[in-house]
Amino acid sequence: MNKRQAGIAATALALALTATACGGGSGDSDELTIGIKFDQPGLGLKTPDGKYKGFDVDVAKYVAKELGYKNKDITFKEAPSADRENLLVNGDVDFIAATYSITPERKEKVDFAGPYLMAHQDLLVRKGDNSIDSEKDLNKSSLKLCSVTGSTSAQNVKKKFASKADLQEYGGYSECLTGLQNKAVDALTTDDSILAGFASQEEHQGKFKLTGLNLSDEPYGIGIKKGDTELQGKINKALKKMVKDGSWEKFAEKHFGPSGYEYGEAPKITETS
Amino acid sequence: MFDFLEDYDVWEAFWVTIQLTLYSAIGSLIWGTVLAAMRVSPVPVMRAFGTLYINTVRNTPLTVIIVATSLGLYQTMGIELGGGDSKEIGFRLAVLGLIAYHASFVCESLRSGINTVPVGQAEAARALGLNFLQVLTLIVLPQAFRSVVAPLANVLIALTKNTTVASAIGVSEAALLMKEMIEIESDVIFLVFAIFALGFVLLTLPVGMLLGWVSKRVAVKR
C-alpha cells in the first residue's frame, strides 16, 4: 500500500467512525441518545460512579421505553443550557429532557413535546427564616438574593419583580448555597424544582426550606428536532401514559418528596402539532 | 436582525470590562514590580517569598482565585472591601483577584527585562556607592521596563480577556451579559457570540498595536 492509498484508507476509516458516532436518528436505529443535565440534583445528576438519577432522567427513561428502546440502548449526553438548541439542530441527541422551559424564542429553533412538569420560580431560605412570605417582601435593597449568572431567574429578579434587591450572581448553585449557609445572602432564587433537588440532597436536608411563592411559570418540555411531528406525537402519548399509570407521581415523590416541595398535578400537554 | 440588542446595555457591560482591566492593570503593574524587586533583592527571605508567591499564584487557575476571593474572603471571613451592595463588593473582589494573579506574570516579564541589563552596570553603580534600592530604581528598572513593553502588552491583552472570569462571582461585565443573552435569545446564539468576540477584538487589537509601536520606540539599543 503506497502513501496515497493509505491516506484514502485512513480518510474512509475516519468517515466511517464519524458516521457511527453521529448515528442514532429516531426510528430505524436501535440506539437512543438523550440530552440531560449532569449537575442538577433531583432532576439530572451524574453520580461519581457513572450512574444517572433524577426526575428528568426517570421521565426520559420512561419515554424511551414507550418508544421501544431498552435501558441498555440509551446513551445519556450532557446538555448544558447554552448548548441545548444546537445539540438538537445538529442531531447530536434525539431528544432533550434537561429543565428545558418552553419559550417562544426556543421554539424558533426547536420543537417541544409536553410539558411534563410545571415549575415556578421560587426562593430557598434558611429554615426558621420567615421574613419573606409574599412577592412584596422582595423588592427592597436590604434583601440579598442569589442566583446563577445569566439564568432566566436572575433576569426575572432584575427586570420584573425585584429590581431594587441586592442580587449576587454566581457561576453555580453551590456557591449560592454556601452563601446562604454563611448568611452572606438571604435567599437563593430559581425554579422550585431545582431548589427542591438541592434541598433534598443528603448534606442539605433540614437546613433550608422553600417559600412557596409562585413567581413565574416554567413549563418543562422535552425538546426535539424542529418539524419532527411524529416523534412529538409519540412522546406526548408516552407522557400521558406516564401520568395515567401513576409513574409521574412516583417519580416526583421519589426526587422532590424529601424537600416538602409541592409539585402539584402533572401539567396538561400543550405542545401538539 | 439586531433589534434584540435594544433590550440590553452592551456598552455598559463593556465599560465594566474596561474598568476591570484598567484598575487591575495598574494594580498588577505596581504589585508585580514590588514582587520583581523582591525576587532580585539581596534578602533571602524576600527572594523566597517572591518565588513562593509566583509559583503558587501563577499555577492556580484564575477561576479558583476569583471564586476564592468571594467565597473565602467575603462570605466566610466577612471582608467587604468598603461595603456597598454585592455588585460593588464583587467588583472590588474581582479586581483584587485579577491583580493577585496577573502581578505574577508582570513580575516574571519584568525579571526577564532585568536580566537584559548587563551585570556590569549594577556592579559599577554599587562601586559608586549606590545602595540596592538606588541601583534598582535609578539604573536597572528604567532600562528593564523599556525592554519589556511588548511582553507587558501581552499580559495586558491576556488580562483584558481574563476579566470575563469575573462573571463567575457576578460582576456584570461583558461575559455576564453574554450569558444572559445566550439564555434568553437562544435563536440568535451565534450572532451573540460574534458581537462579543468583536467587542474584545476592538478592545485588544488597538492596545496591542499601540504598545507594539511604543515598544519599538523605547527599546534600549545595545
TrEMBL record, chain A:
<protein>
    <submittedName>
        <fullName>Glutamate-binding protein</fullName>
    </submittedName>
</protein>
<feature type="domain" description="Solute-binding protein family 3/N-terminal">
    <location>
        <begin position="31"/>
        <end position="259"/>
    </location>
</feature>
<dbReference type="Pfam" id="PF00497">
    <property type="entry name" value="SBP_bac_3"/>
</dbReference>
<dbReference type="InterPro" id="IPR018313">
    <property type="entry name" value="SBP_3_CS"/>
</dbReference>
<keyword id="KW-0732">Signal</keyword>
<comment type="similarity">
    <text>Belongs to the bacterial solute-binding protein 3 family.</text>
</comment>
<dbReference type="GO" id="GO:0006865">
    <property type="term" value="P:amino acid transport"/>
</dbReference>
<keyword id="KW-0813">Transport</keyword>
<dbReference type="GO" id="GO:0005576">
    <property type="term" value="C:extracellular region"/>
</dbReference>
<feature type="signal peptide">
    <location>
        <begin position="1"/>
        <end position="21"/>
    </location>
</feature>
<dbReference type="InterPro" id="IPR051455">
    <property type="entry name" value="Bact_solute-bind_prot3"/>
</dbReference>
<dbReference type="GO" id="GO:0030288">
    <property type="term" value="C:outer membrane-bounded periplasmic space"/>
</dbReference>
<dbReference type="InterPro" id="IPR001638">
    <property type="entry name" value="Solute-binding_3/MltF_N"/>
</dbReference>
UniProtKB/TrEMBL annotation, chain B:
<dbReference type="GO" id="GO:0043190">
    <property type="term" value="C:ATP-binding cassette (ABC) transporter complex"/>
</dbReference>
<keyword id="KW-1133">Transmembrane helix</keyword>
<feature type="domain" description="ABC transmembrane type-1">
    <location>
        <begin position="14"/>
        <end position="211"/>
    </location>
</feature>
<protein>
    <submittedName>
        <fullName>Glutamate ABC transporter permease</fullName>
    </submittedName>
</protein>
<dbReference type="Pfam" id="PF00528">
    <property type="entry name" value="BPD_transp_1"/>
</dbReference>
<dbReference type="InterPro" id="IPR035906">
    <property type="entry name" value="MetI-like_sf"/>
</dbReference>
<keyword id="KW-0812">Transmembrane</keyword>
<keyword id="KW-0472">Membrane</keyword>
<keyword id="KW-0813">Transport</keyword>
<dbReference type="InterPro" id="IPR010065">
    <property type="entry name" value="AA_ABC_transptr_permease_3TM"/>
</dbReference>
<dbReference type="GO" id="GO:0022857">
    <property type="term" value="F:transmembrane transporter activity"/>
</dbReference>
<comment type="similarity">
    <text>Belongs to the binding-protein-dependent transport system permease family. HisMQ subfamily.</text>
</comment>
<keyword id="KW-0029">Amino-acid transport</keyword>
<dbReference type="GO" id="GO:0006865">
    <property type="term" value="P:amino acid transport"/>
</dbReference>
<keyword id="KW-1003">Cell membrane</keyword>
<feature type="transmembrane region" description="Helical">
    <location>
        <begin position="20"/>
        <end position="38"/>
    </location>
</feature>
<dbReference type="InterPro" id="IPR000515">
    <property type="entry name" value="MetI-like"/>
</dbReference>
<feature type="transmembrane region" description="Helical">
    <location>
        <begin position="188"/>
        <end position="214"/>
    </location>
</feature>
<dbReference type="InterPro" id="IPR043429">
    <property type="entry name" value="ArtM/GltK/GlnP/TcyL/YhdX-like"/>
</dbReference>
<feature type="transmembrane region" description="Helical">
    <location>
        <begin position="59"/>
        <end position="77"/>
    </location>
</feature>
<feature type="transmembrane region" description="Helical">
    <location>
        <begin position="89"/>
        <end position="107"/>
    </location>
</feature>
